[in-house]
Amino acid sequence: MAKKWKTAVANKFLQAYTLFGGQLKPRNSFDSKRIFTSIVIYSTTALGDLMFNTPAIRAVKNRYPHAFITLVSSHKNKGLVAKSAYFDDVVYWDEKVRDITGVVKALRVNKPELAIILHSKPPYDVISAVLAGCEYIIKDVYGGKPSGIERWLAHPLASFEGHLIQRKLNLVKLLGCEISNTDMFIPVDFPPIAKDNDKITVGFQMGASEKLRCWPVAKFVELAKSLTALGPQYEVVLIGTEKERGLEEEFLSAMSQAEKQQVISYIAKTSLPELLGIMRNMNVLVTGDTGPLHLAVALKTKTVSLFVTAVPKYTGPYQDPDLHQIMWVPADVENLDKTISEQPLSIISSEEVQQRIESLIKPIL
């Protein structure tokens, strides 16, 4: 109900605003052959969403190599976009309506002609694009169902069943973009870290956006104990943010002093660019469905990914299938035993994950 109310108010506001001002032009005047010179791209949500958007961003950059491109991004993704050659300017916005005036003011400086909304919060994204002076707006409308805001877009709604990456690419195809390259990429340079080739490095990303998506710490402990017992060449590397400090403590407290000698924790100790260098050196990363999975895929680091609430065919690895092992528990959470429903991935044993790891690192053993 709240969303419908916001959309209704947004539509009334935009109807009045465009009647007397603004630059928005009618849909039937849109020409895909036009060479736009100033473009604003919206990707204001999570890290994984930004990574899913990178193939579409590359396609836009290739289509308009001389355009001034502004990115509207979340503050939390600053390390991935601040110094990127793909963007001429970056405006940071965490989708708070109270900040929309400042965002619009910053966007107007670059006089954008076209807004490409890949992932952002409606209806504030469309409002800001109209107020910034955009002539046309294209937007990925999730589910392809009318929301009430599509009247301001330069294209009709289209339903799509498939991976998020392909959906974003299909959107920018409306502009005449070439969309055959579906590989994600890291949009900034980052410092390389020397790798010890005598080590087999297995990364653990234990946290996720919610407990439901996490493999239990006890399972990670079992896996770590099995790996370190294989010999001193095995090294377990923990990654994560400040929010995962509790998981780190739980994990380390369950390891013996001898086992800890083969564990390195970078949790809450790195910047995003530094983390990229660490992840590139991993032989394999074990992770749930969370941002670092998509960073690893873009880095072409091998992964064992564990899915439960999300469906891998929509949000799992979409490139280099030989590098990735996907373990999916399509659980009906409501009908599971309570102890399992809190963390359905607990159904997956550490032995099963270890087998997947061994299948990926076999060529280097």
Automatic annotation (TrEMBL):
<dbReference type="InterPro" id="IPR051199">
    <property type="entry name" value="LPS_LOS_Heptosyltrfase"/>
</dbReference>
<dbReference type="InterPro" id="IPR002201">
    <property type="entry name" value="Glyco_trans_9"/>
</dbReference>
<dbReference type="GO" id="GO:0009244">
    <property type="term" value="P:lipopolysaccharide core region biosynthetic process"/>
</dbReference>
<dbReference type="GO" id="GO:0008713">
    <property type="term" value="F:ADP-heptose-lipopolysaccharide heptosyltransferase activity"/>
</dbReference>
<protein>
    <submittedName>
        <fullName>Glycosyltransferase family 9 protein</fullName>
    </submittedName>
</protein>
<keyword id="KW-0328">Glycosyltransferase</keyword>
<dbReference type="GO" id="GO:0005829">
    <property type="term" value="C:cytosol"/>
</dbReference>
<keyword id="KW-0808">Transferase</keyword>
<dbReference type="Pfam" id="PF01075">
    <property type="entry name" value="Glyco_transf_9"/>
</dbReference>
